[in-house]
Write a structure and sequence with these properties.
- Helix 1 packs parallel to helix 2, helix 5 (about 190-205) runs parallel beside helix 7 (about 240-250) and helix 9 (about 285-295) packs across helix 12.
- The strands form six sheets. A five-stranded mixed beta sheet has the order 6-7-8-11-9, with helices on one face.
- It has helices at about 20-35, 125-140, 155-160, 165-170, 190-205, 215-225, 240-250, 260-265, 285-295, 300, 310-320, 325-340, 365-375; strands at about 5-10, 10-15, 15, 40-45, 50-55, 60, 65-70, 85-95, 100, 110, 145-155, 170, 185, 210-215, 235, 255-260, 345-355, 360.
- The chain contains 13 helices and 18 strands.
- The chain is an alpha/beta fold and about 375 residues long.
- It has two domains: about 5-185, CbiD-like; about 190-375, no CATH class.
Length: about 375
Amino acid sequence: MQELYKYYNGKKLRCGYTTGSCAAAASKATAAMLLTGDRVDYVKIITPKKAELTLEITDCEITPEYASCAVKKDSGDDPDVTNGMLIYARAEKISSGIAIEGGVGIGRITKDGLDQPVGAAAINSVPRQMIASSVHEIMEKHNYRYGIRITIYAPDGERIARKTYNPRMGIIGGISIIGTTGIVEPMSSVALIETIRMEERMKKAGGYDNLLLTLGNYSESFISEVMPDILGGSVKCSNYIGEAVDAAIEYGFKSILIVGHAGKLVKLGAGIMNTHSSQADGRMEVLMACGVIAGVELNILKKLPDCVTVDDAFGILKSAGVFEKTVSVLMEKIQYHLEIKAHGSIKIAALVFSNKYGIIGKTEHADKLIKLITEEYNG
């Protein structure tokens, strides 16, 4: 294919193509082989992003009853567990239409709220459109007026799916065929944000009105010790707090409780809704500002910029006897910025903890939302 690149943190990184593009290319090639009996070595497809891809076709098989082939997934410079796997398509003649099915190694939907209905193969809408369009193009080219069944399969799909979010989201038995643009952009946040949105949709489709957001492994370990009954109902939003809140409002949740480590959630005190260190830091600056509002002496606050971690800063504040009043201001600031983000349309709160000091603080409404979530998640 013509190689595409993007720049990330000053580095030139090569783009790849999605499992959806692989499936569409394999489908186009195998449909052509079915109708002509001739081997296909390369095909061109146009992605939804209007990029033209020329993809190599491998492992071809042509028989009187069917044709099959594969495309090797290339994720470019993006760290993707599906990189290098083979995505197969098998084509068979049917009486009419274009049927798209999932075979070995393609997951099955078992929960509501996903792109496809329960029981369907985990081949998302955009890849299905790409497959249908590619096969239709071949049918038109060869003036074929009957139908073709395409079965997408991935022999290594079940093993690779164990390394993905699929089991957690109720996609069982294999990978998903996904992609909204057809192109994998290195270090892109798009796929992770869509996973967050998908998990939230599933929670809402499952009847939940109150959403528990965690930031990662620290959050989940803390909840498993302090509130183990509600951990199974959580959605992990990583650093993307703002996007997770936006999605929750869009899907009609009534409340959101965010549980996270102080190293991340302190940043909310300045309205920083993406807590990744590459986006913004400001932890010590937030704590210093809160200390000033709380009336902490300047000579104490001057020590904070030299701290590497928030636990170090908390230790200084505790030793000086000003921890509680500084944290009280911090909780007010976090609540203030969360309510701005939520536009007053939803109850929202946060519980902040650290591995060293346990619960640091709770914003207004946190205890009430903990009670609501506990009751809802436990029937």
